[in-house]
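[AMINO ACID CHAIN]
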Amino acid sequence: MSVKLNKKTGKWEFCFNAGVNPLTGKRKQIRRRGFDTKGEAIDAYAIAKSEILEDNFLDVSNMTYGIFMENYFKERQVVLQRSTFETHLLFYKNNIKPSFGKMKMQEVSYLQVQTFINELVAGGYSSNTVHSIFRVLYGSFKKAQLMKIVRENPCQGASLPKRGRREMNIWSLEQVNYFLQEAPHVMRVTRCLIGFELGLLAGLRQGEILGLRWKDIDFANRTIYVRQTVTQAGEIKDGAKNDSSVRSLTIPERLAEELQKHRRLIELEKSRCRTGYHDNDLVLPTRDGSPMNPRNFRKEFYNLTEYLDLPKIRFHDTRHTHATLLIEQNVNVKLIAERLGHTDIQTTLNTYSHVLPNMQKVVSDKLDAILDF
């Protein structure tokens, strides 16, 4: 028993271990101070000990989902990109916490999870949003199961609404050529033009374009190495979307020439910058060398396409346009998957299934041409 007199205050106090916190792995200590006599401290010590034995302090069986999530998000903040973390936190606070926050972890059942999903659907949330909210809920209970706080994940086997595939709008080959021919001649054309060309001719993602450095380009072999990205928050991040996204790809000679011309512009801006240039070696920085805001980049794309009177597409659809053009030119789908940085070829096949029926006809026509019977 650790009951002692605090010589500084003249008061009695006690301290004892109350096991290990299942969330942090740290040992919990119960400490009480300010008792006038040793007897009062001993009595309080006995009461506190009995409460521990009766599980009246925080333990696994009494832990609420809300308390668990406070610690869970501390861990996720380290793992996730800031924009992703903020989105997950918003889903939790607005949707998940009101339904499960005050419930004990071990009391959450499959039926309650399914009811929660049904209410989201009935409340008008899109199927994609429901899936995103559910992913946060499922991930938290998966972690709790790993920590042996719950025996089973109550989200396992839940029925979700069928995800609607987002409509893909792409440009035709004629529209791509029109853009590449006319955009450079627009008066005071945006400095972001080289980024738009990288989307159309290399199939790079927005973050990969904004994170591309000059040292990542091998002009002798016309090869780009994707090694870092810029997040939606405008922060440079090592690596890419996934392991497959860290890759190399060759580029057309026309694009290599455009990159060389753009490099001279960047060097000129660097020499003229009077406020102190932030040299991140970026291909497409702001005028002082800092990473470009992704929102501003997209805005420039939409303004330019509107000026050229081209069909409105998302910037990410330039990547889809690039892939579709390659498929229509009979490029091997496996090579396209590697070029796009897809995890596996099935992702490519699923994403561009709209092109495959035409490709199947091309195959059958070629068979007709070579068969003689």
About this structure: The chain is about 50% helix and 10% strand.
